[in-house]
Design goal:
With 308 residues, the chain is an alpha+beta fold. It has 8 helices and 7 strands.
């Protein structure tokens, strides 16, 4: 029902905005016509003031064009934002329905079939993973809202970053594949000082993105290591990759790679927006590089002296 409503005809607000834009264009043309007409009439009456009148007309015309340009940009920005919010709602609906359908199927199978204990536990574990996916979605929306309102304080504590990445990698392992999807190389026991809740969202979003934009059951590599000054997190995939002109835009709110009409991978457009803002609060860097032969590498660098 929600999907059909969102995919239906343009909303009243959009229609009103487009109508306002049309009226705005008509008013601009009318104002220009009147300006030129009255200018001609005044010059006929007082031809000796032609230079002054022309100057006044040009000044008025300059400010009118500047105002019209900025107003047009504002209206178009509102239309674009509305489209982004509509796509966001569609994506959230899909992101909610997918794990819920999976959980429902697992529970119905447990109830209707006589499964042994091992099978039941396997289905329950997979259901818990889907519940955690829903929890991730809610946390993403919560953090994004708090970042937007500047109401999140990013409390810091020292925690085992290696353990955090290992647990998230295990949780996000796609359980419908027979082969290992997420391959980890994690140096154990690496400590980091920061907001563990927000950094959990960073790690989860990077790994989920890598899985989401990769072919079915393709390998995703997650690495954690350190040198004398830095702790590194690297998430690599062999998916579609990111074009160079999009690499600077992928951290914008609601922005998603590719065309909205042809894109197959689902998502809310909040993940990398959250990643960038959380890392900025931790004085951490993130680099986006091309993988070989295809895919993308996200590399996060935590500076030990900054983190502490």
């Amino acid at each position: 029902m929600l999907l059909s409503a969102l995919q239906g005809p343009p909303t009243k607000a959009v229609k009103n905005m487009r109508r306002s834009l049309t009226i705005f264009y008509l008013l601009i043309f009318y104002a220009l016509f009147q300006l030129l007409w009255w200018g001609v009439l005044i010059v006929r009456v007082e031809p000796d003031k032609k230079g002054m009148i022309l100057g006044e007309v040009l000044v008025f015309l300059f400010f009118l064009v500047i105002g019209a340009y900025h107003l047009q940009r504002a209206l178009k920005k509102e239309l674009k934002l509305h489209d982004q919010q509509k796509n966001f709602l569609l994506s959230v609906t899909h992101e909610l329905k997918s794990p819920l359908a999976s959980i429902k199927l697992y529970l119905q199978t447990i109830l209707k079939r006589d499964l042994d204990k091992a099978q039941q536990q396997s289905f329950i574990r997979n259901s818990l993973k889907d519940i955690e996916r829903l929890d991730d979605l809610v946390e993403n929306m919560l953090i994004a809202t708090k970042i937007e309102n500047q109401s999140y304080s990013f409390p810091k504590e020292t925690f085992d970053f290696s353990d955090l990445v290992a647990k998230i990698s295990d949780r996000l392992q796609i359980h419908t594949c027979s082969t290992q999807v997420i391959r980890t190389e994690i140096i154990p026991g690496l400590k980091l000082t920061g907001d563990s809740f927000a950094l959990t969202s960073v790690v989860a979003n990077l790994i989920e993105n890598a899985v989401k934009y990769s072919p079915g059951c393709a390998e995703v590599e997650v690495k954690v290591w350190q040198n004398d000054e830095n702790i590194f997190l690297q998430v690599s995939d062999h998916g579609v990759g990111i074009k160079d002109d999009e690499k600077l835009r992928i951290f914008d709110k609601f922005y998603r790679v590719g065309s909205e009409d042809t894109r197959k991978a689902k998502g809310t457009g909040l993940g990398l927006y959250i990643v960038k803002h959380v890392l900025d609060k931790h004085q951490a860097q993130i680099k986006v590089k091309n993988n070989q032969p295809t895919g993308t590498i996200f590399e996060v660098i935590f500076h030990k002296h900054d983190a502490n």
